[in-house]
Amino acid sequence: MALLFLASIVAGCAGVSESQCPLGERAMVKADIFFGRGMRDGGEVSEREWQNFADAEITPRFPDGFTLLEANGQWRGAEGIVREKSKHLIVVLPTAASEKLEAVRAAYKRRFHQEAVLQFETRGCASF
Q1: Bridge partners (DSSP) listed for residue 29
Q2: What are the φ/ψ torsions at residue 51 (nearest 5 degrees)?
Q3: For residue 1, which of 25, 42, 99, 117 sits 20 to 30 Å off, Cα-Cα?
C-alpha cells in the first residue's frame, strides 16, 4: 500500500499580502509535496517511472524551476507502521497557482494508485 499522509495541509491560513512584503519582495507560496514511492502491490515507483512522471507532470507546470529531494517517509496505515522511500518536491510560486499543485498531486495518485499525497504550503515574502 502506498499512502504517504493526508491530503492538503495549509500553514499560515491567511498568509501575507503584497502590501505586507518589504520593498523588492513579493507574496509567494512555498509548497512542499511528499510523494511516497511504495505501491499497493508491494512494488515501488522506479527511478525511471519517477523521472517520466516528473518530465510529464511537474516540469511543464513549473518551467521556472523546482527542487527535488530524496526522502524516507513513515506513516501509520490500517496494517500498522509503513516506511517507504519518497520524493520531496519544493516549489516557490505566486499565491494564485495552487491548481497546478493539485494537478500534480492528482496525477501522481492516479498514475501510481496512491491513496494520498501530502502537500504543505507556507506563505511569505520572497525575492529573486
Answers
A1: 93, 123
A2: -65, -40
A3: 99
